Amino acid sequence: MLDLKFIRENPELVKKAIVQKKVGLNLDDLLAQDQIVLKLKQAAQELQEKRNSHSKKIPSATKEERPALIEEGRKIGAELDAMKPKLSEEEEKLKNLLYLVPMIPSPEAPIGKDDSENVEVKLAGKLPQFSFKPLDHVEILDKHGWAEFEKVASVCGSRSYSLRNEMVLLEMAIHRFALDLLQSKGFTLASFPALVREHALYGTGHFPTGRDQVYHLPEQDLYLSGTAEVQANSLHTGELLDEKQLPILYAGYSPCFRSEAGSYGKDVRGLIRVHQFMKVEQYILCKNDEEESKKWHKKLLETSEEIVNAFELPYRIVEVCTGDMGAGKVRMYDIECWVPSEEKYRETHSCSSLHDWQARRSNLRYRNSEGKVEFVHTLNNTAVATPRILVSFLECHQNEDGSINIPEKLRPYMAGMTKLG
After folding, report:
1. What is the CATH architecture of 4-98?
2. What is the pTM of this model?
């Protein structure tokens, strides 16, 4: 959410961002609604002033004058009361339009229409070379009995999976490695429930436009979260933090759920696009300062690189263009790991800086060193998400005999094993 005063003063800049980010909003409609609300507020203020002025006349009025004055005061009050529902209704309309306003992207962000125009900024790691015909990740899992898809789908629905034996241990090891690394960097480790209230999803910007991606439990009026960013972003809603408390760093570990609406028939095989997964999410609240945000954005990206390097996976970093980054992002990078069977990189991490866009929606504020109250800046990035990263992991580390090499830094989390299978 952008400051309404900023929108009024910079309509062309906001319109440009709306076009660049392909947001379904006519800013002129919002500005017209703003005028409706302003006029109603002005009328209500004038009535309130009239009411206050009128009430001051009553104590000094004569006995004969007082009944007429009291009756007139009641009429003014009734008129004011009648206006309040209309004002609330128009304010709600304005708020719903404000929820659609995108953040202004960084002038350094690439302009583009979709993910085909994201810009590669780094290539790292050596692509595996096989002297044998490598298997894809589903064939590897089937070979060792490390996953089951068909039976669990009959019980749990499509895009479900059940990891087995060593794969369960590997998944846990991957998350434990990430959690230990983040704790060593000063992050507060936090496990989060999957269930969240609607306001939390509005706070991060997943609502109102992303409802089709979220599972709803209508009887409880709760939703299944797709990332611990949602829970972490709401923890300090309504608080007034002190600048000395910033930055606040969370490593949120949680089950995540996404309906994958709109992806029918896409990546239905194996572990790439599933409805339920586990994730460790990096989330930061920092001072309202562009350089501070840039510093933490860089650190978040470097931390995820450190994890991918520890897993010895070839990867690339792309800077996400305006048409693919989402409404709230100022700047965004993806890390994509190599998948040999597809001969391409697939996204495993998304690193985003949102400035105060989420903070305004969630009322995340602090008092700075000069005593001024400001909205914080928020940032987030994946630390690790499974099972998606297992696709690259299994395919890149396979041997001709079907075994899977365990990278050195992960071995302490796998009881010292050097290979699986």
Report:
1. Orthogonal Bundle (1.10)
2. 0.93
